[in-house]
Design goal:
This protein has about 140 residues and is of the alpha+beta class. It has a single domain (about 5-125), classed as Molybdopterin biosynthesis MoaE subunit (Aldehyde Oxidoreductase, domain 3). The chain has helices spanning about 15-20, 50-70, 100-115; strands spanning about 5-10, 30-35, 45-50, 75-80, 80-85, 90-95, 120-125. The protein has a 4-stranded mixed β-sheet with strand order 1-4-6-2, with helices on both faces. The protein has a 3-stranded antiparallel β-sheet with strand order 5-3-7. The chain is elongated. About 35% of the residues are buried.
Length: about 140
């Protein structure tokens, strides 16, 4: 298996993702980890939801493009749904490639495509209420 693409209801693991990405033909592994940040004083968490079959299909399409553009050998795209507290990981993207330059570019491409094109919604959870659903 060369791709691990999933929407998860449980915390993400850097260790498991890195172990998955290990590849004897690759000299580079690059990871992007997105966390919930307290960009508002009273933010407690973000709630994420997705239509999972559609979101995973969109992520698979992005994976195909990244292989063609950057020579990705192995790839991880994981996104949490449900409540993600401040400081916890909400998204983890990683690749292994033969060379470091391609791994940096591929990882950036993947996270930017997820944010722009994958049907995952979020809303703020504050001390006083929960906000409107929006696309990250």
């Amino acid at each position: 298996m060369t791709d691990w693409i999933d929407i998860l209801h449980t915390p993400l693991s850097v260790h498991i993702a890195t172990t998955f990405l290990a590849d004897p033909q690759s000299g580079a592994i690059d990871l992007f980890i997105g966390t919930t940040r307290a960009d508002k004083a009273d933010l407690l968490a973000l709630d994420y939801k997705a239509y999972e079959p559609m979101a995973i299909g969109q992520m698979r399409s992005i994976a195909v493009i990244s292989r063609e553009k950057f020579g990705v050998r192995k790839l991880v795209m994981l996104h949490r749904v449900g409540r993600v507290a401040v400081g916890e990981m909400s998204v983890l993207v990683g690749v292994s490639t033969p060379h470091r330059h391609a791994s940096f570019e591929a990882t950036r491409f993947l996270i930017e495509q997820i944010k722009a094109n994958v049907t995952i919604w979020k809303r703020d959870v504050t001390r006083t209420d929960s906000g409107e659903w929006s696309h990250p």
